[in-house]
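Re: [ENG-882] Designed sequences occasionally contain unexpected residues at chain ends

Forwarding the minimal case from QA. Structure tokens:
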């Protein structure tokens, strides 16, 4: 391989690592850690899986380090704590510079002035705000000035020069009403006067969020299941927007407030709320937190969702109409620009007095066509969003979706009841000795028990609501309650557009032959069955939970 090929390969590898190395390393690391832990739980020796576990953890941490080097911010609190609380803090891409320079001794300093521990950084922003809001510039007593030996008595000393003699004064600026020039400290050179060129005041690298004005307002973070997590009291330019964006909040024009996504009708996201409150308090805001985690009845929640979805469909429909009108106007403008061109496709006469006008007309027609095509695509996209949003509620209440939701809520309710009452489970059974390794979970207690009881009550309410929806669908004939009581081995069930022979009837599923013609079998949940026939191909109906065979009906597609 030539040197150029080697350099190209190395460059390509570096580019791939820089572009996709961070997410790939995190994913592979988490996967290796999970596989190692699962193997250890399954009974493998720890010593054989420890290298895999350590390699996965290092890959995960390396992925987060690379991501932090690219974005200058941490995407994982755990990775940030591992780096900043260990000797790896000198590799921290966000604050590693401060850690490394905090250990460098300052020239002329004493051991007392440079302790081993890292000193906290100076808050230049707060210091500058204090200086700006002060009535007068801070002053430091000027050191005594040695008299000049051969000073001329005929020269009168300038009284304003006294304000410029102190080279140790803070670099601030104030204006004296009685002086003809601003008082600057320090001056361009010691012992100078106001006529000397002034030095620019020292300012921090980034200006503060507000130079003057009223103090920061009081903010209130509220959470209710009806409104979600909101924050009140913010205003444009008060400095809260940057903090809220960093804490993954979003701004809503409809609500007129910042909010946490996916917080409505859910428990408060306390880690995110507490982190936001701490960051705002560190910036000088007064923050109050008011959380109400009381669940609403499921019927009210679903009614609000349906109403909000209907309002969204109306808004998108109006937007699609506006986009369609814009597209029609754009096509009209394109036709007008096309009609302005010379008839018959007359070519441009180079050097003729009409060349410039002709070229402008062609360019205008081309631009109008591009705008019309873009407007047409935008209108089609908007109309597609309307069509998709109009089907959202129907899809949420589809019979198959409702049946799956009932199964999920039933499993969740059983899990919560186990946490409430306590349970045991067998982790592993030694095949040689028959000894079982049992894991025992005590019943929930304290605050956790109160939360589990609240969740049980909420899940039971949700389950009752959706079971009512399912019963209504069965009564209306839009859903059929198939079960092992009405399906028998040898029957034909319709699944993914074809009928398949039932090989075995289970508690929640039926076993059929492979739907792709393989030698294996597939399982179909009862909620996925679209039709039922007996072994002879006669249609089967479910009437009051009983199986009724309709003889002489059309067999339809062939059985698989």
């Amino acid at each position: 391989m030539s040197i150029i090929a080697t350099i190209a390969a190395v460059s390509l590898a570096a580019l791939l690592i820089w572009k996709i190395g961070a997410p790939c390393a995190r994913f592979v690391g988490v996967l290796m850690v999970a596989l190692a832990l699962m193997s250890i739980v399954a009974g493998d020796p720890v010593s054989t899986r420890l290298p895999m576990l350590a390699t996965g953890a290092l890959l995960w941490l390396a992925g987060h380090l690379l991501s932090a080097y690219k974005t200058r911010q941490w995407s994982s609190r755990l990775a940030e704590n591992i780096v900043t609380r260990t000797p790896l803090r000198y590799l921290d891409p966000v604050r590693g510079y401060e850690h490394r320079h905090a250990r460098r001794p300052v020239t002329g300093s004493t051991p007392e002035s440079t302790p081993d521990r890292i000193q906290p950084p100076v808050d230049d922003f707060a210091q500058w705000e204090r200086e700006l809001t002060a009535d007068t510039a801070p002053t430091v007593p000027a050191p005594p000035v040695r008299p000049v030996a051969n000073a001329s008595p005929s020269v009168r000393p300038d009284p304003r020069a006294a304000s410029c003699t102190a080279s140790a004064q803070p670099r601030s600026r104030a204006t004296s009403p009685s002086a003809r020039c601003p008082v600057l400290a320090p001056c361009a050179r010691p012992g100078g006067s106001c006529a000397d060129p002034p030095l620019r005041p020292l300012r921090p690298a980034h200006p503060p969020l507000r130079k003057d004005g009223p103090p920061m307002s009081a903010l209130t973070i509220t959470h209710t299941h009806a409104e979600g997590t909101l924050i009140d009291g913010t205003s444009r330019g008060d400095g809260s927007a940057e903090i809220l964006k960093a804490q993954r909040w979003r701004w809503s024009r409809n609500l007129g407030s910042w909010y946490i996504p996916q917080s409505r009708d859910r428990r408060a996201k306390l880690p995110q709320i507490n982190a936001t409150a701490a960051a705002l308090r560190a910036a000088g805001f007064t923050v109050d937190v008011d959380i109400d985690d009381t669940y609403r009845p499921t019927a009210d929640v679903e009614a609000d969702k349906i109403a909000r979805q209907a309002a969204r469909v109306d808004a998108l429909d109006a937007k699609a109409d506006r986009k369609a009108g814009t597209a029609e106007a754009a096509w009209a403008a394109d036709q007008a620009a096309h009609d302005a061109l010379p008839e018959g496709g007359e070519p441009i006469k180079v050097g003729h007095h009409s060349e410039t006008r002709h070229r402008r007309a062609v360019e205008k027609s081309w631009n109008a066509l591009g705008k019309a095509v873009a407007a047409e695509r935008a209108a089609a996209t908007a109309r597609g969003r309307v069509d998709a949003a109009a089907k959202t509620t129907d899809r949420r209440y589809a019979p198959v979706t409702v049946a799956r939701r009932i199964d999920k809520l039933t499993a969740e309710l059983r899990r919560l009841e186990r946490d409430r009452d306590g349970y045991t489970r067998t982790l592993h059974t030694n095949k040689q000795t028959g000894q079982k390794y049992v894991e025992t979970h005590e019943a929930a207690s304290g605050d956790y028990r109160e939360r589990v009881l609240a969740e049980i009550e909420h899940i039971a309410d949700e389950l009752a609501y959706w079971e009512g929806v399912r019963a209504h669908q069965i009564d209306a004939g839009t859903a059929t309650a198939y079960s092992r009581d009405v399906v028998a081995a040898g029957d034909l069930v319709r699944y993914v557009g074809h009928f398949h022979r039932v090989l075995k009837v289970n508690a929640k599923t039926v076993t059929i032959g492979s739907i792709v013609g393989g030698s294996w079998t597939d399982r179909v949940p009862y909620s996925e069955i679209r039709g039922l026939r007996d072994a002879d191909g006669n249609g089967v109906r479910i009437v009051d939970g009983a199986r009724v065979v309709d003889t002489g009906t059309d067999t339809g597609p062939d059985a698989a």
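QA comment: On inspection the terminal residues look reasonable. DSSP finds twelve helices and 16 strands in the chain. Proposing we downgrade this to a documentation issue.
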